[in-house]
Amino acid sequence: MSGKFEPKEPVILNPPKDDPISLEDLAKCNGVDSELCYVAIKGKVFDVTGKDAYKPGGSYHVFAGHDASRALALTSTKESDVRPDWSDLSDKEKGVLEDWLTFFTKRYNIVGMVDGATNL
Does the predicted TM-score (pTM) go above 0.70? Predict the structure, then answer.
């Protein structure tokens, strides 16, 4: 089970950063207003720059520039679900969110934390 979320190709990651990133700055890192493309999960900001799925027209572009915790927990790409709050979700959905957090952690650099995040 340890290899469940392992990438197919080895990924060399930088040490995680905990620099504060404001919601305003996160929103700019959407692959449109900036070349940078970030997605936050439970307050951790991941750099997904260069990944087609998060670029405009990509299947996960709706997550770019946002904390997508709730949407990921619900396995939803609805814009209305792309928000940080996940506290009212079921245990099963919270488990799905943890799986996504593990998946991202093994593939993408953590470039900071959402400043003032309460959904850790």
Answer: yes
